[in-house]
Amino acid sequence: MKWILVSALLFFFMACSSPDPVSNVTVAQGLNEDPALRAAIKKIEPFFERMRPPEQYDWLGSHREPGQTFEEYLNSNPTKPTHERQKIYVLPLGKFTVRQKEIINLTANYLKAFYDLPVTVMPSRPLTRPTVKNDSRQLPVTKTEQLRTGYIMDKLLKPILPADGAALIAFTAVDLFPDSSMHFVFGQASLSDRVGVWSLKRLSDKTDNATFLRRSLKIAIHETGHMFSLMHCTKYECVMSGTNHLGETDRRPIDACPECMAKVCWMSGVSPSERYGKLAAFCRKNSLRKEAEEFEKKLASIEH
User: Fold this and answer.
1) pLDDT of 161-198, one tens digit each?
2) Of 25, 44, 28, 27, which Cα lies nearest the Cα of 36?
3) Which of 4, 164, 205, 291 is the most exposed place for a label (fewest CB within 10 A)?
4) Which one is catalytic: 49, 102, 145, 223?
5) Which residues contact 131 (CB under 8 A, 6 or more apart)?
6) CA quadruple 260, 266, 267, 269: dihedral positive or negative?
7) Alpha helices in 137-180 (DSSP H)
């Protein structure tokens, strides 16, 4: 089993690896078979900033990654949704505040617009506490309760993964850790089992509601992208770029760069213009004015 860790503290970071071969792998078609998508990549390039030199503690300051072009994605036999596995399932796991429930529902709607896949929010389930000692712990200073991500994925999520699920994403308000070597993680996802869990606990620290929402959108999109074989982007400031800390996460856009946009559109079969229209509508509806204007400008560029 291979897992993905969502970025944690400054020195305890996300570990992403190449996806395992799984049954829903589709052999990629050549890029030349979709000239419209190639043209769309060029048209939206001006809207994205090239990856800047890493600041202290940033992801690329401590990780050497080659990135992944659209052509490389196509040639990697990427995992993608199939006719049998089309849905993204979102599971609220445990107890939440009214604000957290709203964030989960908004994130589910954004996932639907971003990946152009049906998204179902499952009925909330109680978060069953583990009976094995190593599956939970308490931080010595803050006395914060933490649950091990592997316990949640293996014991709570895998047994309930729907047959038509392309991915099952659980959200919890409980703090998470992957193993004894790390202080905490925001979340973790399996590349082979199509399940993942994310914590909202630290995303709302010392910030307003809009930033809390943006952080949740970015992490959900980023980790779901890994489930569909999208690797870290190193060419542009992109939602698929690796991050080490919340400051770096806040600098990233909520959108995919030209190369990663093409991967998403190819994977789901949606046109760039249709996708940008849906994303702009989501942002307008949810008071993300700057992002809505950016999506509308990209849409106008594509249609020009």
Assistant:
1) 999 999 999 999 999 998 988 788 888 887 678 888 99
2) 44
3) 205
4) 223
5) none
6) positive
7) 149-151
